[in-house]
Amino acid sequence: MPRLRLALNQIDATVGDLAGNAESVVRWTRHAAGQGAHLVAFPEMMLTGYPVEDLALRPSFVEASRAALASLATRLADEGLGELPVVVGYLDRSATARPRYGQPAGAPQNAVAVLYGGEPVLTFAKHHLPNYGVFDEFRYFVPGDTMPVVRVRGVDVALAVCEDLWQDGGRVPAARSARAGLLLSVNASPYERDKDDTRLELVRRRAREAGCTTAYLAMTGGQDELVFDGDSIVVDQEGEVVARAPQFTEGCVVLDLDLPPADTDAPAGVVDDGLLVDRVVLSEEPAPAGGPSLSGGHAERLDDDEEVYSALVVGLRAYVAKNGFRSVLVGLSGGIDSALVAAIACDAVGAEHVHGVSMPSKYSSGHSLEDAAEMARRTGLHHRTVAIEPMFDAYMDALGLTGLAEENLQSRLRGTLLMALSNQEGHLVLAPGNKSELAVGYSTLYGDSVGAYGPIKDVYKTSVFRLAAWRNRAAGARGQVPPIPENSITKPPSAELRPGQVDTDSLPDYPVLDAILELYVDRDRGADEIVAAGYDRELVTRTLRMVDTAEYKRRQYPPGTKISPKGFGKDRRLPITNRWQERG
What we know:
With about 575 residues, the chain is an alpha/beta fold. The protein has helices at about 20-35, 60-80, 135-140, 165, 170-175, 195-210, 305-320, 335-350, 365-380, 390-400, 405-425, 435-440, 460-475, 485-490, 510-520, 525-530, 535-550, 550-555, and strands at about 5-10, 40, 85-95, 110-115, 120-125, 145-150, 155-160, 180-185, 215, 220-225, 225-230, 235, 240-245, 250-260, 275-280, 330, 355-360, 380-385, 430. The relative contact order is 0.09.
């Protein structure tokens, strides 16, 4: 059997940074060439970053992407890499699509090119376009209609893009019909909790359907609220794992695959789902035998809590770095939410770049101030205290507020103080709200919702406690000081906006609340279904009403790392003005 040395570059890309992304392609291709690779691959839309959203609808950006691709091909050849085939994703447009109702103007395409000899020798577009969750690809792209196959070192390699594997039909059975020896899929599939297990089973199933070894190359890094977790996978035609890359880590997986030789009578023309085989022959001669074989390795998997925590760290780190910030600012209340956010921030950007501010009022407890200061001592983050009581008294003297207005004033003063420090010192403010609070509107607009990014926006309160406990255990296992004070984890949650206040004055116990929210928010279950699952009807009705009436608040909350199948934002789009109510 011919041996093909495949290099899978599991790396990060920044949306719109055509020059920087091209530089990464050159750098990693040079590395792969040094490893003796025969075929080099990069993720979906590597050259433009992903997702480009409405940039796809700008002809100027599409043309810039096409020009960058041509320039990249020339540069690879100029640097002596022209005889090494490179698979790279980019943004293109269809040359043949005719305008029709419902088609994106200009017919943009989520495309992939094979660069060889200083030019793109094969180009194709994603066939299956996702239109669920965070994806709007019907809005942006037109589909491709070919079955691309590139012959390298005597092996036929079928090519696909992300959703081409996630949906039935199309390029997977077409790869079998085309008698490919390898199916290579390039992807930018966002992270979701437990998705790694789903992904592995998908790749195994598709390999058996395609009847050939299958390589799933994934992107890593972060883009706005999305995180890409890497976890590239190679399985043989029976679905057995050959190699698996680390999660949340950039790198190049190089491995040798013994694959069947290309069939000289392999079919041309139309195969499954009307796809036209587009085969390009680059090299017929197999690679010389001999030398050690590279296996690619099997990276150890992260446990569930470490996986989620890693996603939160990577998402925040990417957002801060890619938006040009060097430091972050956190309001340290001494509570569990701000403590977890501060711990994530220290891990993401380094404690020396994290600034914490305690902003006590007359209702703040002494232990809260002590817990915030202890957090700073344990982590080494910068810490200061600015009392809001003088400002609060000035407002109260002028307005004479009472009740909820008095409580919210404290939160808004803190928000104003954080934004003032951000403007003055250049820090990015982190909002500490969790998914439970966002769901039921248990937050103050222009107060604790202030910030440019919400690291735990998609984390339910029960998971906040679990992640905090995991982070402390992980530190202990490494012989380090646990970053989060135990008192922040064990004391009853409280906004401390009035004497003796605790969250359960206004909300159900968090385990019950989060279970109801998970059914309603994440799984779109109705009131009757939730009651049938064993929850009190009156409690369900009250909870769902709180969720529905808080939509206007969520629309104004900053972006934050998505870790669930349905986060607030693009995943879940509901009208603010809405008289439909779930009635239990």
